[in-house]
Task: structure prediction
Amino acid sequence: MMEPIKRIKGTDDILPPESATWQYVADTIRRVMSLYNYREIITPIFEYTELFARSIGASTDIVSKEMYTFLDMGERSLTLRPEGTASVVRAYVEHSLSVKFPIAKLYYIGPMFRQEKPQKGRKRQFNQFGIEILGTDSPYADVEGIILNLRVLKELGITDTHLMINSIGDPNCRQGYRRALKEYLQPRLEKLCSDCQLRYHNNPLRVFDCKKQSCQAQLEDAPVMSDYLCDDCRKHFDKVLHILDKLDIEFSINERLVRGLDYYTKTVYEITSTALGSQNSLSGGGRYDILVEELGGKPTPAFGFAAGIERIIMAMEQSEGYETPKPQLDYFIALTNDEILTTAMEFAERLRDKGNSVNIDFRGKSLKSQMKQADKLGAKRVVIIGDDEFSKGVYLLRDMETGEQTEIPLSIIPNTDK
Result:
């Protein structure tokens, strides 16, 4: 016997019945997106490496350490997408979506890839959904994105959430903050980890992303961005906070929140859940008003967020009252011999024509075994075609909830609530 091939480390097979949960999450996301008039965009899983180096930032951990990058047969450097925003913005510019949609409201659902150390809630192939709203610099767009994010979580039964928010300014007012932060960190440089020493030179704000306690201890008295915001960035942030207050959205300001991608400007936020323990982040995002231009488009303000589906499902499972979605089947057809199978399949197709889900067990098991299978599959009704029923041209319709059983001619499809 040959050695079986196993899945790659850091990836998962999503099997039934768990796949029903994933389908439920995706259906909920799409339903909520429609309430806000966001339209789905589907981009390639791999892109030119330059797209991510230019958008995310060559000095970030994602680009420098975590991307799956390879040369194709034409010696072009390609990368499996590590996040969704860069691909959406590339598509927005390439297809001139600004002409068709002055304000483009887009969302995506799909797999992303990062070569990280696999752990609970953090895989090498993971799934995200997110939104991008391009074409407006209104603080109301920031708030709508945050509210939409919270609504999706609420609709999925996740209510134990906390919203943290900050402003990281724009490239102009960030220059003064970068200088002040470097001055603060310079005498402490030897106490920082090797990664943070590199961040100090390339992008000192990334030091705040470090999870090592030794580095965090050196940041306790570090200067904060709010002291360096220009008037425009300050007004924008104050307006966002004012709108959140007016809409009774609870939040806290986190002066250390910077997010892990270089393209963010002004508003950044993160939503966490205590249900996830130390790895408590569910989703996050912010404004990125310069990215479209950096990827070859016209200057276009934008806002977006991304959320990890694996972590969302983990939080759902910890929520009070959560139940795994049970399989639902409208009809199970039980029969007693193969001679009846053709008639049963024809009957099943007539039921499906009416929009019903139908299952037939082809294994030739006993009627008792088939009834157990129907119950296991969550069938609402069972159509029983035994030898006696077949000879009389009828079938028995059993309601699995009440146990009520009715004899009906085979020529008649049962009334359904479809």
